[in-house]
## 1
Amino acid sequence: MTTLVSYFKSLPKCHVLDPSIKTEAYIPLDLSVDNDDLNTVDVSSSIALDQYISSYIKAKRAKVAYGGYLEKRNIYNRSAYFNAANPETERNIHLGLDLWIAAGTPIFAPLEAKIHSFKNNMNFGDYGPTIVLEHHIKDIRFYTLYGHLSLESLENIQIGQTLAKGQQIATLGDSTVNGDYAPHLHFQIIKDMQGHVGDYPGVCSSLDLEFYKKNCPDPNLLLKP
Ligand SMILES: [Zn+2]
C-alpha cells in the first residue's frame, strides 16, 4: 500500500490559495519561541501580531507568509484552552501549516474531496469557522482541516458534498470570528480523525508530540510552498 508521505511526494504542488500567486510571493515566517523579533511584539494581541506579520510581508515584497509545522510557540499561552498553566500538558506545538494573508481571501480544495464535517469552534484562541475535507484517492484516505474561516464559509454547505480539485471551499475570516488572530488559514493533514467532527487539535503538548507527528504529516509535502 502506498504510504501517505510517498503519495504526497509523487504529486505536483497543490493549492489552497489562488494558484496564480507565484511561488516567489510566499515567504517563510518563524513564529517560534526562537524568533527574538517577537520579544518586542505583544503576541497576545491579534492587532499587534497582524501589524508585525503585515510589515514583514511588505518588507519582503511578498504576498503570503507561511510556516509553523511543529513550531513551538508562545502565542497560545494567553488562553486557558491550551493549558498554559501546566508546563507538562501545555499545548504549544503547532501541527498545521499557517498561511498568513488578508481576510476575505478565497480558499480552494487542493485535491478532489467531499465535506467530512464543519463547525464554528468558538473557544478563545480556537479556530472559529472550520471545515474538514475527506479525500479518498486510490487506496488512500486522509483528511484536511481548514481553520480560521469566515462565518459565510459555513453557509450553504453540506456534509458529504463533493468538491473538485481547485473548487473554492471558503474565504478567510477576520479576528472578530477566527478565535482572535491576525487573519490566516490553518491547514492541517490528518490521517485518523479519531471521531472528531468539524474540529481536530491543531496544537499539542510535547508529551503527545510523537503520536500527533505521525497522525498529522507535514503539510509542506502537499503544498510545496
Ligand atoms: Zn495554525
## 2
Amino acid sequence: MQVLIAYYSWQGHTAKVAQALAGQLGAELVQIEPVAESGMFVKAMKAFLGLKSDIRPCRVDLAGVDHLVIASPVWAHKVPPYVREYLSRVTGGSGKPFSVLVEMGGSGADSAIGIIRRALEAKGMHFVASAFTLEEQVNNGTFGDRITSLADAIRKGGTSQVGGR
Ligand SMILES: Cc1cc2nc3c(=O)[nH]c(=O)nc-3n(C[C@H](O)[C@H](O)[C@H](O)COP(=O)(O)O)c2cc1C
C-alpha cells in the first residue's frame, strides 16, 4: 500500500511524529512549506479566522497513492493556514481513503481533525482514522504507542480514533 504523509511543522514536533509514522508504514513524506513565515500573532489570527496562506509547490496529486495522511499542528483549535492551502490543492483523491494526525499543546484536536476531515470529504475522499499527540509526549519520546495504533488502523482500513488521555 502506497501511503503519502503530507505534514506541516513549524517547531519540529509534527515533523517527528510524521517521520515516525512514515517509518512504520514505509510512507512517502511531503513537507508543506510556507512561501513566507509570519509572526506568531499573524499565525494565530490566520488560523483562528480559517484563512489560507501560500505554500511552495509540492506533491498534491494523489495518482498512485492508496492512502493520504495529513499531519498538522493544532493552531487556535484549528489548523495552520498552510495546511488549509494544501488541502485546497489536493487532486485525484476521489474515492480514496485518508487519515488525520494532529499534534498539540493540550486542546483542540477534535475541531482541528474535523476541519481536515470536512475538506477532504468534500473532495470525495473517505475518512479512515485519526489520532493526536501532545507536545509533551513528543518532547519526552512517549508518543510511539499512539503512532503504532494509528499505523495499524491505517493498514486495516476501518474507521477508528486513536487516543484519549
Ligand atoms: C499560533 C499557534 C497556535 C496554537 N494553538 C494551539 C491550540 O489551540 N491548542 C493547543 O493545544 N496547542 C496550540 N499550539 C501549540 C502547538 O500545537 C504545539 O506547540 C505543537 O507541538 C506545534 O507543532 P510543531 O512543533 O510541529 O510546529 C499553538 C501553537 C501556535 C504557534
